[in-house]
Amino acid sequence: MARYGLTVMDVATALRETNRSISAGDIDEGKRRYVIRTDAELNSPERIRAVVLRTASDRATGRIGRVTVDDIGTVGFHHKEPSARIRALGVPSIAINAVRETGANVIETMEGIAAAVDELNATHLPAAGLTMEQVYDETVYIESSIELVQQNIYIGGTLAAIILLLFLRSVGATMIISIAIPISVVGSFVAMAALGRSINVISLAGFAFAVGMVVDAAIVVLENIYRLRQQGMPRFKAAFEGASQVWGAIFVSALTTVLVFLPLLIMELEAGQLFRDIAVAISVAVLLSLIVSITLIPAMASRILGRRVKSGLEKASSDAGGSVAPSRLRLPGIDGLASLFVRMIVGFTRWVVRGRLRALTVVVVICGGSLAIAWTMLPKLDYLPEGNRNLIFGIVLPPPGYNLETTSAIAQRVENSVKPLWATETGPESKPGEPPKMERFFFVTLRTQAFVGAVSMDPTRVDELIDPLRFPVFREPGTYGFVSQAGLFSRVVGGGRKIDIDISGPDLESVLATALKATGAIMGAMPMQEGNQFRPRPGLELGAPEIRLLPDPVRLRDNGVTATELGLTVDAFNDGLRVDEITIDGKRLDLMLSGPDGGISRTQDIDSLPVVTREGTVVPASSLADIIVTAGPTEIRHVERERTVTLEVRPAPHMPLEVAMETLQNQVIGPLQAGTLPPGVTLRLSGTADELTKTFDAMVTNLLLALVIVYLIMAVLFESFVYPFIIMLSVPAAAAGGVLGLAAVNAQTFTPFDMLTLLGFVILVGIVVNNAILLVHQTLHHMRADGMAPSDAIIEATRNRIRPIFMSSLTSVFGMLPLVIFPGAGSELYRGLGSVVVGGLALSSFITLFVVPPMLAILARPPKKSGLESTTSDAEGSPAE
Fold this sequence. Notes:
Elements: H1 8-18, E1 21-29, E2 32-39, H2 45-49, E3 52-57, E4 64-68, H3 69-72, E5 84-88, E6 91-92, H4 106-122, H5 138-168, H6 171-178, H7 180-194, H8 201-213, H9 215-230, H10 235-259, H11 262-265, H12 272-304, H13 312-318, H14 332-352, H15 356-377, E7 392-397, H16 404-418, H17 423-426, E8 438-446, E9 450-456, H18 466-473, E10 480-485, E11 499-505, H19 508-525, E12 533-537, E13 544-551, H20 553-558, H21 563-574, E14 577-584, E15 587-593, E16 610-612, E17 618-620, E18 625-632, E19 638-639, E20 642-650, H22 657-674, E21 682-687, H23 688-718, H24 722-728, H25 730-746, H26 755-767, H27 769-785, H28 790-821, H29 827-859
Antiparallel strand pairs: 1-2, 3-4, 5-6, 5-8, 7-9, 7-10, 8-9, 11-20, 11-21, 12-20, 13-18, 14-15, 16-17, 19-20
Helix pairs in contact: 5-6, 5-8, 5-28, 6-9, 6-12, 7-12, 8-12, 8-28, 9-10, 9-12, 9-28, 10-12, 10-23, 10-26, 10-27, 13-14, 14-28, 14-29, 15-25, 15-29, 16-18, 19-22, 23-24, 23-26, 24-27, 24-29, 25-26, 25-29, 26-29, 27-28, 27-29, 28-29
């Protein structure tokens, strides 16, 4: 190069300018159209060797001299230096990651991948001595989750039918109500498809919750028809009158259940998608059940309930004295308890309506106690459930400056540590007290970080592999990172429970100094030994070793070399300069310009790197620049245009995210802000902490909106602001029951109070008022249609409504109970939600009978007929005119 006066920049420019393929339009001649293209692509080693770098002519002789690439160097194929190493179960491997398109069905995509893997293993790979194995398949978890939800739907539906049979003692009547379950659920699938909603684990859980709810309206309608048939009313008239009498009540009940979801449907936060899926599923099922209850149920009842019926349980609920009439089928224990319970409730109601002071005292004590229980026992918040995917994944950040060989050595030590847990080494079964065996284990090492992952032989115990991986990974001094179970709703390493502390400022030195202080405070407040994990981004020090060349402008000018030429020359003679991308035999390759020695291996060799000048001299790099060994940042990170170091903290599994946020705020951020921070340096919580705060604020707003919507809907339909207020008093008891239900489940299985669990309280607002609506509706009917005094009307309404209240409540509770008690894939998503709804509904069913009658005794007055009550009739006779 020096002989011909060529610099590295000259060679690179010539190669780059030669490798061109340029379209030059077209020509129409005769019947043909010719496309014009200038083709000079370097698509073979021969064409590269023939590239002319310089041409000179002798005017005297007319001779022309040319310098080609072949004159100054050799052209050949070579391999890049590896930038990563991957080992799977101790064997060097190649990793291939498949990313599905947005909107593509994950199950169909994975089926296609599995077929492709089988085809490759059967055809091309054996000849190369390779095998391809699928390390992780997320559809296994999805399909297991779907199977569990389907099982819960079947079991819940069966339990609901058994409860109905226990109350009605009639196979025909039970069949009439039970038919509402498959019709509503199957119809909901069709409606979901028409609305463009996908069927997933969350929406299926919504259908499972709806199994117990869709029979509520059918129970109320059939119970009324059943009671009228007991009184001797003809079957067709009983079907018509029975449905007409309660139409207003079940319409209000269904409307309140559906409208509480309205604020969730327009929620735009990350959690809003999950809420919309379950909201749409339940709403569609409940609306279909309303249609079934006023059309199909009366029609079937008029055919199946063909003769006068009498049941001891029904007679017990209408007999204030508790005597039991002869019946077709007696269950002595159950009937005795039912009769005793009816007498107790009716006796309490008769006692409480006699005095307003005692009624007010009862209401204040019960509602105040319910609120106190809900407030004091409410657990701390979490964000979203992480699921129970069978994959442990971690990111490891070694100390700055570690090379690939060193990080690979760390990987080797981790392999040796966990090798006894490999199923391929020690068998698939683990001994008692030991973690489960690993079906898969892989380690990916890069120059600046590493990734580790494992799949368990026992998917239900995969979280037990976190500590066996975490301890050897972070045994290396100065190593940080996360090892956690892969989350369902977050593809970010650390999952949905990662809290970020952003430390920002005008200069990196002051930011790093503050980050070091914050790190010490974090280690003290949330020790790593307790399961907490931590990693800084980009790092806590300018620790990446760096050899920096500082060009001297005077010496560069004296030698006719630019800073660009110096930099390109150092790159070419050390790492290799990438000139362009070329295509040879259909393969895309990098065209590299490299020195003859293939790079340097010692830092001091940089001084003697040759730099060719245009005058044809070769000078060492040290004569053109000052060369120093220093340190630089591994990553330049900005937040709001300021230099930022982010400290990422993942709390221990059983520490709620809200508790971790409070700990960091009170023990880390607060003390640092109270002390002396460098000028311009700020600290703030971000990441999941931000999302949790935003989502919780939105959920509180949505809960208040749900209360207002339910109240206003009832106020319009009852044409009164007083009676909806009475009905809303059932909500505090439901809140207390929801908190107690969650506490009961936590006593057996850890269940965080996440945003999906919080959704249970929104659902409760819409369904727990149904029982109170029945009581108020029946009381107003007795006062308006029968002319009863308020106290008599309250007692009679309580006596008549006990059975449908507990029939609908128990069917709902037992219909949802499998979602709470049966473990398995996906159950961690909706177990908390189910426990809140089941607990709230169960407690409010009892408390409603102790709260609504006293409030009616205080506030009820014989009013004029309203639009809602004008459609009702006497529960014991003909409809009101």
